[in-house]
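Protein: TetR/AcrR family transcriptional regulator
Species: Streptomyces sindenensis
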Amino acid sequence: MAHVSAAERRPQLIKAAIDLMTREGVAAGSTRAIAAELGVAQTTVHYIFGSKEGLYRAVMDQITDELVAHVKRAAPEDAGFEETIIAFAQSLWGTVREPTSHHRLLSELTMFALRVPGLNEARQGHYQRVIEVTAQVITETAKRTGQKLAESPETVARFFLSGFDGLTMQVLVALPDETAERTGLRALVAATVALARGDLELPDVPTA
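Structure follows.
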């Protein structure tokens, strides 16, 4: 059998892990099962990634890269501010509804990472990257359309993503309800646009 270098095997194992956990869930993603998915020895996984946590970090990074690339492509270049946010939200929502996008798996991994100290950095890095890219889309859209922002792009991005995460969680845990999903997404877009334009004022709510 021809020798396969670690550099070649690494993306193969990441894909095998994604395929397995997409089908059977994060709990099924042991190093033994992932190795079997690709047909290699379990020691190969540990040699390349060091541990299961190392492999999971690589999986989260890979899916985050895919999501970030999708987000960057989502915003149209010739629409108004509100129309751009609508298109952006619809495109991103498509990744939640489409199983092959791995968005749901990333949500599961993010929750799993809350209880695994070795994955905290990957979880935080994923969310920060998504915030930064979303804020960049908002900044560039505002500049292109001449829309003055009443709040910082990061504040608007965090507001949108918080609501989007809530809608995503409803899809993960509740029965499918396309009408409720469309209503929720429309409300989130309307509130995000209102916040950006200054029509929605953020109250001073103490956190402690």
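Remarks: The chain has nine helices and no strands.
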